[in-house]
Amino acid sequence: MLALFHLSPVLLVTAMLVVLRRPPVHAAVAGTLLVIVLWLAGAADAWRLSSMVAAAQDTAVLFASTAFVIVPGLLFVIFIERMGVNLALSQWVRSLGLGRGDQVVLIVLGLAPLLEAMTGFGVSLIATVPLLLSLFERRVALRIALAGMAIMPWGTLGLASVIGASLVHLDASMLASTSALTSAPVFFALSALALYLAGVRDSRGWGALGVFWLLFVGVLYSASRWLGPEVAGVAAGLVTAAAILSVGLWRLRRNDSERGPVQWPRQAWPYLVLIVSIVGLKMLWAITSWQEHWVVQGAQVNWKPLASPGLALVMVLIVLGAHARNIQSWTAHDVNLPAALLARAKRPLLTIFFFLAMSQMMVKAGFLAGLMQLLAGLSPTAATSLVALFGALSGYMTGSNVGGNAIFMPAIAMLPESSRLLLAAVQNSSAGHAALGSLSVVMLILGLAKTQAKEEGELIRFGFMLVCLNTALVALGAAMLRGWLG
Question: Phi and psi at residue 150, in whole multiples of 5°?
């Protein structure tokens, strides 16, 4: 009972989002204020100035590390939208002439994860929704778009895994690679669902899906383990897309010997520059360890700005800015660039800030001790299922993997080290998949597709069904991984 009382800020947030349908930023502010009131009223540990200062320090460090990626990431999104990059990508995929099954797998295991891992913020939908609407019947296209979106919880260059690892005091590469395994059933199930929705029934298409799924998971795990979460999602999407294109185009050339080579669309060069920048910086970090020269220290967390993927985004933005000044048509847009950035960044940054503040105060005031005791007293299977449920709830209601991790990851940090990594991976995976099937993502799809009221209700229900399915699959993946590890 005491654990439920200590979780009342989270319950308030849930009620405001699900029942009252308030915006996430309003819910985050309300949850933060309730924590402060309960703490001052003596509902948890005694209020101390040192504890409040520690919470403020860690909130500031975590928020700075998040904003340093989100702000340049959103600016990058604005640039590629104005350059028509994603439109060019859509037209390119449509021109390849691939079979129905190859098209679906290319989009949901290749193109969508690749773009979402590089940028986040639902940018992949800007390319995939128009493309899917041109390839499939409208109802099918919208569902495939949502299924493909919910596959990749490594958005924004693995930011949520990095922040989650700092909150739970684990190595980011270990957390990301373990999360790749707990998410593996989701990758297959959502890809299979997309294939089924597209009407693919032949055994060759389903066999190919199995092969490409294994490739996707293998690259995601390996890149997470040895290169880091910043490049893992990009590598998995890129390698899988290249493999699908190679096989699909080989089949086409076998039937059409006069077909020429397929070239990557020139307008998509910003994505290639970003990949090169990320990989180049990772190599520089490995050789010189220069990222260790600047460490921003909080009370219990720290941040290395020189190791942030935000640095690669800033480098690419400098190149894009120089390119934009050479294009006359950009002159009118330049005046509105700060306003466009502020309009996009304000809500997500405020929401994440208040969720981080709420979680850090809950940790420093002892609010999460009851939840930790509850988890510690459960069997491994029950604890895994409960964490998957909490993770899905946090991701779905915040619409953000970072926000979801901010709420419950600190409680996992208090658990014994033997169980911490797997439960942290379950939280990371379930929050990520639920956030990408949340109402904010559904609304983005509906806006891009200019839908009717009836379609809105159907897609919201479909998205909620995906969240429930993904949560169960993450718990299943964790149980299989625990059994395999013994």
Answer: -75, -5
Are 366 and 45 spatial neighbours (Cβ–Cβ below 8 Å)?
yes
* Dihedral-angle region of residue 304 (phi above 0 means left; psi in -120 to 50 means alpha; beta otherwise): beta
**E-strand spans in 48-194?**
none
**What does the pLDDT read at residue 334?**
53
Supply the DSSP symbol for 415. Answer: S
Give me the pLDDT at residue 426, please. 96
Low-confidence ranges of the chain (pLDDT < 50): 331-332
319: helix, coil or strand? Answer: helix
* Strand positions, DSSP E, 184-321: 296-297, 302-303
Residue 194 pLDDT? 94
Closest CA relative to residue 135, chosen from 78, 188, 184, 95: 95
Instruction: State the pLDDT at residue 439.
Output: 66
For the record, the structure tokens of 55 come out as: 């919470």
Nearest 5 degrees, angle CA 377-CA 379-CA 383? 80
pTM score of the predicted model: 0.79
The whole-number pLDDT of residue 261 equals 60
Residues 6+ apart with CB under 8 A from 228: 158, 172, 173, 176, 282
Contact (CB, 8 A) for 420 and 164: no
Burial class, 462, CB count within 10 angstroms (exposed 0-12 / middle 13-18 / buried 19+): middle
Within 10 angstroms of residue 150's Cβ, the number of other Cβ atoms is 26
